[in-house]
Design goal:
This protein is α/β, with parallel strands linked by helices. The protein is about 40% helix and about 15% strand. It contains seven helices and eight strands, in the order ββαβαβαβαβαβαβα. Strands 2-1-3-4 form a four-stranded parallel β-sheet, sandwiched between helices. A four-stranded parallel β-sheet has the order 6-5-7-8, sandwiched between helices. α2 links the parallel β3 and β4.
């Protein structure tokens, strides 16, 4: 069975990832594994922390290659080390959630796709990724939630209420009808938030970035040109 490894590019201090967070991705014919960094930032909320995580994430990607893992997903909307891994000749799929979500959003009916960002620094980072991936600056929409109190990430109910308020404001001011969170820690809230927004009358699609990354990685594994035919 092929293995997809999810690498969360932070050193888990106060806020880490429980492997159970990814249970909903299981049961699709692949084995899932998960790891954090051994050292690096405790959270990625800026270009500086993104760069701090980069070498340690590359090390984890290399370890995955050596272990025979089929593909890697970097569990961060900054797409940490995805480009650099490709530049270094890593020969397995390495997919970032922003890259995958931008691709998937283009396939969904709607007029405007927007990103709910934790802060202004990450808006700049997402804009850079958007342009690097070949999209037009005129189609870039992001909302700065000014979410500087990261302890809110530990309070599920309070966080959901805040995301709902911020998403509704974004929809009203920018007329977006396709949304993604600018942090994969919010992934489990995609479907509930979409349901809550639709109940309020907004015909909006809220994308799950980890699910987008998973399906893109799975597609690449199923269509690996280097794999020998079993026929």
């Amino acid at each position: 069975m092929k293995e997809i490894r999810i690498i969360t590019p932070i050193a888990p201090l106060e806020i880490g990832r429980d492997p159970k967070d990814f249970d909903y991705l299981k049961g699709r014919g692949v084995e899932l594994s998960h790891t954090h960094l051994d050292q690096g930032p405790a959270f990625i909320d800026s270009e500086a922390t993104h760069l701090e995580a980069l070498p340690f994430c590359l090390e984890k990607i290399q370890q995955a290659c050596e272990a025979g893992v089929g593909g890697v997903i970097t569990d961060c909307m900054a797409d940490v080390a995805m480009k650099e891994a490709r530049e270094q000749g890593v020969n397995i799929p390495v997919i970032g959630p922003s890259y995958a979500t931008f691709k998937m959003a283009a396939l969904i009916d709607g007029q405007r796709f927007g990103i709910l960002s934790l802060n202004a620094e990450l808006v700049t980072l997402f804009k850079t990724l958007w342009l690097d991936y070949g999209y037009s600056v005129s189609d870039f929409y992001a909302h700065d939630m000014k979410l500087h109190d990261l302890s809110l990430l530990l309070d599920h109910d309070a966080l959901f209420d805040e995301l709902l308020i911020q998403a509704e404001n974004f929809i009203k001011t920018q007329s977006v009808d396709k949304l993604v969170f600018g942090c994969t820690a919010f992934t489990s809230m995609a479907k509930p938030l979409q349901a809550a927004l639709r109940q309020k009358g907004y015909q909006v699609t809220v994308l799950d970035p980890m699910l987008c990354a998973f399906y893109l990685t799975l597609f690449l594994l199923d269509n690996d040109p280097h794999e020998k035919s079993q026929a």
